[in-house]
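User: Show me a protein chain along with its predicted structure.
Assistant: Here is one chain, sequence first, then structure tokens.
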Amino acid sequence: MQRLTTRAQFQAVLAAGIVARTAHFALHRMADPQALIGVVIPKRWAKRAVTRNTIKRQVYTLSEATSLPASAYVVRLRVGFEGFRSATSVALKQAVRAELQQLFSQVAA
């Protein structure tokens, strides 16, 4: 799966609408013959860069492992993760991974 790169690509996919939601994430999809993925993690919800990068890595890794229909996708963090001791704790990584699997399974089904 290739990554979205330009602002115009992100805006087009975000305008297309939400196809799946979880407690913290929203998944936007736009019909596209290529399989594209992008991630939007606002500083408002993940203050530290290390947390934003950890979440992005999880999204890109799981998007490769999941068989999503060919389209352009944007995963957007809607609410921050609270109550974790460290910005990259194992518990945070597991919580993010579980929620992303749930998000992707809603689209793959």
